[in-house]
Design goal:
Length: 434
């Protein structure tokens, strides 16, 4: 856990309490980010019936979000370095609220595709990397795996709250009213983030950013082999995770399975609880006991999670009696992928130098988002062409095993980044004078 200390000047001069409040506020924003991703898969169930949206069109709407998300990852990484992470974090949540409201007024597929594309490009693309930059700036190296795990565990919270609250809201109030409620919540979280996130000192921002912009270039980042290896791994893990997140409601409520929207909400919320346990418990245990064995941890849980998800489809379909074994399979899959995912995303925090962190992390994230873009549409295509979900769950197994293989190519031994951030020009001059 985040250890107690009075003030640590190395990491922004923040007290432990201030760091905890910072992590908690970013956690709220993260939860809103994931609820926005999750709610679309729930709301598309009644929308497809009301507006005649086909499976492939549903896939287009979901994939449009990830296309915008992927396109803006690297530009947001450099913008992050230029203007600072606080501005991007707060702007992201406010813009998310605006596009959530706009989505509620839609009546056509083209409109939905456009809104989700812009939401991914302008609201989501900068949030996660900016939060990771805040973690790197304010949390010691030894505690970053757990701190990052706390933030990523918001996906589990969203997977619990989303089905429990969003599913009944969509079913009883309608998706339009539900999205207005989500807009109000997003704007409230944005105000909290403005208040809590510390602003960098002006002298540090100006001198450090000018220096960094000269040091960091896209070609230099892309020449880093580790960036490409982590990008590929992130692509595989997100292909499975977002495939499950976006299509589980449609699968569970399909004629092939036959659960109601409320029943699937209960099932996915249980799976979400296990994702939360995996993200929090896994990040703490891995950070404390397996700090140099991340590859082995990821390999094991990638295989376990893939087999569990494949087994979910093998459970006989139909009838409440099959809810329990199917839920168990999804829960094991979510738990395993939570551990693998949070462990994977802790590696950039330990291996990328501070001056190149944001754009390097953005490149890795672009791989994951590309997986999120390809998976929803390809699944919609498979469902439409095959008339069922057998091929979908087979693809989860294959891609998960590819993830387990790909992580083995990430170097086990590496030179850890310095525990202290890069000095500003003013600090360097002072050091020379001393």
């Amino acid at each position: 856990m985040i250890k107690a200390s009075s003030v640590n000047p190395t990491y922004g001069g923040q007290s432990t309490l201030q760091t905890i409040v910072l992590i908690a506020s970013m956690f709220l924003g993260y939860t809103m980010i994931y609820i926005d991703k999750l709610s679309i898969s729930i709301s598309l169930v009644p929308m497809s019936k009301d507006l005649g949206i086909t499976p492939s069109q549903k896939g287009m709407i979901m994939s449009a979000f990830f296309l915008g998300y992927a396109i803006m990852q690297v530009p947001m990484g450099f913008l992050n370095t230029k203007i600072g992470s606080k501005k991007i974090i707060t702007a992201s949540i406010f813009i998310l609220g605006i596009f959530t409201a706009l989505f509620s007024f839609g009546t056509s597929v083209i409109y939905f595709v456009l809104i989700r594309f812009l939401s991914g490009a302008l609201a989501h693309s900068g949030y996660t990397q900016s939060c990771s930059k805040e973690v790197q700036a304010n949390v010691p190296v030894s505690q970053r795996t757990f701190a990052n795990g706390i933030l990523l565990s918001s996906s589990g919270i969203a997977s619990i709250l989303g089905p429990i609250f969003v599913s009944p809201a969509v079913q009883n109030l309608g998706y339009k009213q539900t999205y207005i409620i989500l807009t109000v919540i997003a704007l409230a979280i944005g105000l909290i983030l403005i208040t809590v996130i510390p602003s960098p000192r002006k002298d540090e921002t100006i001198s450090h950013d000018k220096k960094v912009m000269h040091q960091v270039s896209l070609s230099k980042i892309l020449s880093n082999k580790l960036v490409w290896l982590l990008l590929i791994c992130d692509f595989f893990v997100n292909s499975v995770m977002y495939g499950v997140i976006n299509w589980a409601p449609s699968f569970l409520t399909s004629d092939e399975v036959g659960f109601t929207l409320t029943q699937q909400g209960k099932m996915t919320s249980v799976a979400g609880a296990f994702f939360l346990i995996g993200a929090l418990g896994g990040s703490y245990i891995v950070g404390k006991f397996f700090a140099d064995k991340e590859r082995d941890v990821i390999t094991f849980f990638a295989i376990l999670g893939s087999v569990a998800l494949f087994s979910a489809f093998q459970v006989p379909h139909g009838g409440a009696i099959n809810m329990v074994p199917m839920t168990i399979c999804f829960a094991i899959g979510d738990l395993s992928y939570a551990i693998a995912f949070t462990t994977l995303l802790s590696l950039p925090l330990k291996r990328f130098k501070p001056e190149a962190f944001a754009p390097s992390y953005a490149c890795v994230a672009m791989g994951g988002i590309s997986g999120g873009f390809i998976a929803p549409y390809s699944i919609g295509f498979l469902v439409e062409k095959t008339g069922g979900y057998a091929s979908v769950f087979t693809s989860f197994l294959v891609v998960g095993l590819l993830f387990a293989v790909a992580i083995r190519f990430v170097p086990k031994h590496y030179t850890p980044i310095e525990a202290t951030p890069v000095m500003t020009e003013a600090e360097e001059l002072m050091q020379q004078e001393l």
